[in-house]
Amino acid sequence: MKHKLELIYFKMRALGEAPRLIFHYTEIDYDDVMSWDYYDKEWSDVKPEIPFKQLPMLIVDKKHKICQSMAIMTFVENLAGINITDPILNAKANAIMQSAHELFMPLNPTVNFATGEKFIKKRDDMMPFLISRFEDLDKAIKENDKKFFIFDEPRACDFVTFHHLDLSKLLDPSLIKKFPRLEKFLEDIMSIDSVKFYLESRPELIDVSIEPKLVIDGVPHPTGVKKT
Length: 228
Ligand SMILES: N[C@@H](CCC(=O)N[C@@H](CS)C(=O)NCC(=O)O)C(=O)O
What we know:
The chain is α+β, with helices and mostly antiparallel strands. The protein has helices spanning 17-26, 35-39, 43-46, 69-80, 87-101, 104-113, 116-144, 156-171, 173-177, 180-190, 193-201, and strands at residues 5-9, 31-34, 57-60, 64-67, 204-206, 213-216, 219-222. It has two domains: 5-81 and 199-222, Glutaredoxin, CATH 3.40.30; 87-192, Up-down Bundle (Glutathione S-transferase Yfyf (Class Pi), Chain A, domain 2), CATH 1.20.1050.10. The chain is globular. Glutathione (GSH) binds next to helix 4.
């Protein structure tokens, strides 16, 4: 059964990315809609109506509101029929997905919003945590001996991990270079045609640490939750 899928989010390269990546990988049609275009209201007026008061949210068939990016990822895996049926592998995949998701804070807000001295301090303060978590992910993929974290084809956990590792390049491009196996993982995800198409066409995030903006249809917009 084909569902109408609407992914509601903001102007930032953060928790909307993994859902977008898995939608493109699985070639499932969805609409990518900014909160203000969907509701025609400011975020502060919309927020109380959202089940868990944050985005991204996936609206299914104009009826079901699915919040929490990890729930969206699992839903898309199920919808596409690529869910991991083996309970042990499924649990391992979830551990990878959650461990990568924990990189969200403070990596994503820093890259999308921090500027000047604050950017530098946040970057330097989070570096021990990033290095430690990258080491864990590096070890997990090496132990598995597959192309991706679970199989030779990617699953939800791979797209969540991809997003955060990829975003780290905008925080400090030298970090990922310390982990050649993770760099290879990024290249393997980027070389999948449907994913490559999305990555090449998505809004570019520019002026990180100075005045971050997303270039949408050729026009730079400040990152954030407001219509510009
Ligand atoms: N655990 C949630 C976190 C969602 C979240 O932090 N969303 C942020 C944007 S990335 C948000 O809605 N910010 C606006 C607000 O909190 O009012 C998830 O994984 O989806």
